[in-house]
Amino acid sequence: MLIKLDTSYKAFRNFIRKLDFDDSMYVIWAYFNLITLNNFKLPEDIESPPSDIFRRPLMISIQPWKLLRITDEILLRKKELKKEKSLKTWGSLANCLNKLETINGVIAQNFISEENIKNEIFRTAHLQFPWQETAPNIPELSRYYLIYEKVKTFFEEYYEIPIKHFYFLGLAIYTKFTKYPAIKLPVEVLLKDISNEHLNKLLKSISLPASEFPKEILQKQKLDESFFSAFSPLQSYPLIIEKFRGEECLICPSSYLLFQRLTTGIYYDLISKFGHGEFGNAFGEAFESYVGELVHTANKNKKFTILDDSSDRSAHTVDWVLSDSTTRLFIECKTQRATLDVKQELDLTKSKEKLLESISKHIVQGYLSIQRYLDGEYPNLKCSKDIENIYLVVVYLENLYVFGFEGDELKNKVRHRFKINGISEDMLDKYPYVISSVREMESALQVLQKVDMNEFFHKKINDSEMKKWALSSYMNNCYKEESKENVALFNIFTSKLRAEDIK
Length: 503
Prior knowledge:
This protein has helices at 2-16, 21-36, 58-61, 64-76, 90-111, 117-132, 138-149, 152-159, 163-179, 196-206, 213-220, 233-236, 255-262, 266-274, 278-298, 339-344, 348-374, 405-421, 427-430, 438-447, 453-462, 471-478, 480-484, and strands at residues 182-184, 207-209, 239-244, 247-251, 305-308, 320-323, 327-334, 389-396, 433-437. It has 503 residues and is α/β, with parallel strands linked by helices. It has three domains: 2-121, no CATH class; 138-268 and 495-501, no CATH class; 304-448 and 451-484, Restriction Endonuclease (3-Layer(aba) Sandwich). A hairpin with a 2-residue loop joins strand 3 (239-244) and strand 4.
């Protein structure tokens, strides 16, 4: 078993040794952009894949998580590269991807069994689905800016740069790397009121010399079932400091990873320094406040009334309650993260159990609030006989990808917590729950301006298939036309930012 895996890995490693660093970084940058950016075209000096490759989504044909493994291996073997082959030819890149697919096949044959197949599907979801979500965009950057601006004391203590400067610089750099694979050092800033000192502090947190990557890679990479899901140092340091075409440069193999570093990656910096105590509480309140802003902004047609329950922290209340004439929607906001642990843990059972336990706890918190409402003890909200339908929505900052059979496991954990808390199990059927990411919730809130609230949730929960789907998939299937009219509710960055703002 291990001999087969070692042999297939050596074939991949030996192929990488034949490549050229500059040439490979350029090609990898181009393919990452082709997969993750809208309207990007391969440069003319890179041979285009055969037409049949484009018959399927490029995310499937040229998998970005495999491009990431190729990039890591090139950085790991940089001193051994012989410049004998070029990834500019499709045949060479296809050969390299095929060698990785051979490794994947050996892993599947020897490490995946009937006993752990569900866990591996769960790991695969957390490896692949983040790449398949919406392409990097300015509204997404705006979302994270607006949330972190509410905890900017922590943010600015860590990065030593005003948060507004951080994000304007980050956006300018990201824009530059969507157009070019490298920027010559030293970099100059041409943005008003933002200095080179500000830029250097930002770069300190997101860049690393090429010579330091091998150590980081070897600490994470293992030749086992976690090979493809191993954390890459490029996720922490998406910019490489190294000579490129003869000049000292910042190299960015993946503008997508740079964007993720400036959005989802910030949390890990701050939580590692400040912990879950004071910062964790402040961050949770910031997210809750942001969801409230979404709710109020989306409700332009006044389709529902809004109750803010944040004023009563002494007892069980959710964060927001939306009501129309027949339906109440209890919204609980949480900042739970999952992707790092789930992707890296070799003992995935333990990691998945921990995640599902946390989610079940959040769900039961919501039901305790609903129980309090039914008992007539909810502050500022009377239990009305006119309200025939009640739903609970737990909104997370990021998608936790809990659906399908994980949804069944989660429901069992919720039932267990019901017993502990003295909640009737009937509430699960009478007052169902839905899990949503904040991106999905932003879309759902706008759809709810056009359709009946009860109809929207009743159809999702009571259909035997759709109840297992992610909320975004459900809306794409059942409310495609209504969703087409959705817009980004917040976009605080102007389109005037250009790649030329960084020189």
